[in-house]
Amino acid sequence: MEKKACKTLHPQSMCPAFGGLRVLTRIDGVQVCLLADQGCLYGLTFVSHFYAARKSIISPELMNVQISGGTMVDDLRRTIEEIAQDPSVRFIPVVSTCVAETAGIAEELLPRKVGNAEVLLVRLPAFQIRTHPEAKDVAVATLLKRFAGFDRPKRAKSIVILGEIFPVDAMTIGGILQKIGVESVITLPGTALEDYIEAGQAEACAVLHPFYEKTVSLLEEKGIKIVKGNPIGANATVQWIRRIGEALNLDPVTVQAVAEEEGQKARDVLAQFKHLKGKVIVAGYEGNELPVVRLLLEAGLDVPYASTSIARMVLGEEDHNVLSMLGTEIRYRKYLEEDMQAVLDYEPDLVIGTTSLDSFAKERGIPAIYYTNNISARPLFFAAGAATVLGMISGLLGKKEVFQKMKEYFVG
Q1: Which one of 23, 73, 148, 389 is least enclosed by Cβ atoms within 10 Å?
Q2: 73 — phi, psi (to 5°)?
Q3: How many whole angstroms separate alpha carbon 176 and alpha carbon 183?
Q4: Predicted confidence (pLDDT) per residue in 79-129, tens digit
Q5: Sequence-ordered list of residues with C-beta below 8 angstroms from that of 407, at least 6 positions apart, any chain
C-alpha cells in the first residue's frame, strides 16, 4: 500500500515535566514546589496523583499579575519557606516548566537550604526536553550532581541499576546479582535521597533504558563504568550477566555458570511459546519499546514496525541494529499518524500501542492493548519477564475473532 503524506502531525508523549515529577515525587520526605502557570499546575497535579505518588504539588499562584508585576521570585521564596516549616520535609525540588518567565529563573536567586530541607532547582522545559522519559534522565542527573558522593572512595563490587522498572524486576535483579558476587545494588530512580548520595560511590552502572544519556555522561565523567543492555530474552540475559561480571571484576567461573543457568531458564520459557505465530506492532512513548520488540522477535513473532517517542540514542544502538537486521521498521520521535499508517500498511494481528492507536486498531477489529499499563506495569526481565509478557500476548493473539465479531456487531 502506498504511504500517504501526513498533513497534520500529532506527537504522542505527555508533558515532559510529568516524567521528572515521577522521579521527584516518589522520594521520601519530598515536597515538590512547581513554578509554572495555573494550567500547568492543574494538569501536572492530576497526573502526579494518578500516575506518580499520590502526592500534592505546592505552588505559588502564578497568574499574569505576579509574572508581569515582577513579584514571582519573592512569591516563590515565600512558598519555599512555608513548605520548610513542616519538619517532615527534607527536600524541596523547585520544578520550572516551559512558561517563558519561569523557565529562565536563576538558581542563584533560590536558597540551597531552608531549615532542614535541601532546595534544588530542576528545570523541565518542554522546548528543551522533548519527552517525559528524557525528563526522568534530567531529574536523575540533576539530583546526582547535587547529592552524589562522588568524592568518596568507590565501593568494590557495587552497582547502580538505572531505569524505572517493575518492583518484582528489581528484586529479581538483586537476587541474581548477589549470586554472581555483587555486594551492593542501588536502583535509580529511587525513593530514598540516600540512594542518590551512595550512587556516587558505585563502581559501575547498568543502564537498562537508552534515554539516560545525561546521567550516563555524568557517571562516566566521575569514573563509574557503564554497562549497556538489559536482561530481556535469553541471548541478552547471558550477555548482560557477563558484562556485569566483567565490569566489577567478579569470578568468571561463577559469572558464567549463573549466566548460562539464567539463559537456559529463558530459553525454556521461549520453547513453551514456540507455537506463537502472528504479526505485532509495538508503538509506545515510554522509551523502552525496542528491548520488548527484541523479545517478541526472539520468540518467533513477526514485528514489522516499532515506534517510540524518544530519539535514536547511542545507548540503544545494539537494539536498533538487531531489530533492523531482523526486518523491523523503526520510527523515533514518532507521530500518531505514522503509527496509524503502519496499522493500515502491515495489517497486524495485535497492536501494543498508545491509547489513540489502540482505538484506531480496535475500530478495524484488531486486538490492541495500551503499552504503558500492560507492558511497563509487568515484569520484563529474565525468564519470569519473558513468561509474563509472552503469556499475555499468547492470549491476545487468540482473540482476533472476538474483536472481528465486535466490529461486525457495532458496524451492523
Answers
A1: 73
A2: -65, -40
A3: 11
A4: 999 999 999 999 999 999 887 777 778 889 899 999 999 999 999 988 889
A5: 362, 363, 364, 365
Give the C-alpha separation, 205 to 91, whole Å: 25
CA distance 404 to 412: 12
CA dihedral 333, 101, 136, 295 (to 10 degrees): -10
DSSP letters, 119-179, are EEEEE--TTT--SHHHHHHHHHHHHHHHH--TTSPPPTTEEEEES---HHHHHHHHHHHHH
**Interatomic CA distance for residues 191 and 29, integer angstroms:** 9
10 Å CB burial of residue 50 (0-12, 13-18, 19+) is exposed
Other CB atoms within a 10 A radius of the CB of residue 397 amount to 18
Query: Contact, 181 vs 156, CB < 8 A?
Result: no
How many Cα neighbours within 13 Å face the side chain of 324?
9
Q: Is 302 helix (H, G, I), strand (E, B) or coil?
A: strand
- Residue found by looking up cell 515565600 in the block: 78
Domains and their CATH numbers in the chain = 16-129 (3.40.50.1980), 158-262 (3.40.50.1980), 273-411 (3.40.50.1980)
pTM reported for the whole predicted model: 0.92
Phi, psi dihedrals of residue 353, rounded to the nearest 5°: -145, -165
